[in-house]
Amino acid sequence: MFIGIDDTDSEKGLCTTYLAAVLMERLEPYGTIIGLPRLIRLNPCARFKTRGNAALAFRLESNRLDEVKEIALKTVLELSDFTGRNTNPGLVIAEEVTARMTAFYRSAVTEILEIEEARRLLDELGIWHRGFKKGRGLIGALAAVGAELPDFTYELIAYRERKCWGTPRVIDPASVWKADALTYPQTWDTVDHHNSRVVFAPHSGDPVLFGIRGSDPGAIEEAFQTIKSEPAERRVLYLTNQGTDAHILAGEVGDTLDSQSYRLHGRVAEAATAIAGGHLFFVLQNETARLKCAAFEPTKNFREIVLRLIPGDELEVYGSVREGSLNLEKINILRLAEQEEMTVPLCPQCQRGMESAGRGQGYRCRRCKTKSIGRERKVKSRDMEKGFYEVPPCARRHLSKPLVRLSGELVHPSR
Ligand code: ATP
Fold first, then answer.
1. pTM for this prediction
2. Cα–Cα distance between 140 and 136 in angstroms, integer?
3. How many CB atoms lie within 10 A of CB 260?
């Protein structure tokens, strides 16, 4: 059977991944967990998410269905934060994964869905489910069960002992930097070199101690063994759609919907301008339409790249459309426009810079007695390479494919 859970936590605490980890442990005597549990991120623009719009699913081989349902229900009731205003838990237990469930996952990671759409499909397919309060978690629970992962990464999450919840996390930063040095690029986003930060641990009151992301379970384990911290109550390795761009749709400027994420092709129409707070905006256009693209202050050093773009640069941009503008996650510069500058002419004889001959009189070389009518246009070096640039780890969205996962010369990972 395939068990899916979502929307059990609140800003105040708990975490759906923790609930799933505890549930898997409780179900061990009743069957066998097949493969790795799945940490599935859904549309990052979903309105009611607590943090990263995560849902959980795992596969259990068991012939004790009734007991499994009872334990799952009890665990959801015990470990959900029912006081959370936006906590609406959902639990789904399916006997198989069908094409309609997979299609539902694809919609949940790219679009905004209604609770009714989940309920309707669950009823039509005759899937056992329980929704609490508004039951919004049924959307994520069903999507997590249906998730197909043509591309995937791993995350190992370590959980805190209950007595530590709500207190500052004790993690030795030097050991985290060491773990990164030993295992990058098979692991990523543990630290942010450019911004000198450890980024793999939350600061909230939830049970997560830290999470190590990567492409190779061996390297993740090595990083885990290297990190010195308060004792972990438990740890779980998840298979996940994080870092795969599963939310990104191929789209066109002028044909985007709010709360959806895209890869769009166009040319810079207006260079970036900054507003108070350090947020940058530039305008991208294609033959028919224009779109504002944003690099907000938290994207830190990525903004230096955005500031260097000039009208005419040909790009692909990746990000989510919110209130009419696209929040950038990464860009691929396909062609750099020529930038011209006006320079003082050089004397054709001595090759030194000429001087002004007086207002409106052009330029002259005193030494050689040569003259020139005006300044000359010269192509200026752009001082940047084409290719992919991304926001730094401290600003990474869970679903965004980090550039460390791409290969090639024109890839500039932010580390
Ligand atoms: P955490 O990351 O701490 O687990 P969260 O950010 O995952 O929290 P949830 O508490 O799971 O947030 O709340 C997200 C809610 O949005 C869930 O009820 C989920 O079912 C719902 N949801 C997920 N995807 C969509 C979607 N595409 N459209 C509408 N609702 C969605």
1. 0.92
2. 8
3. 18
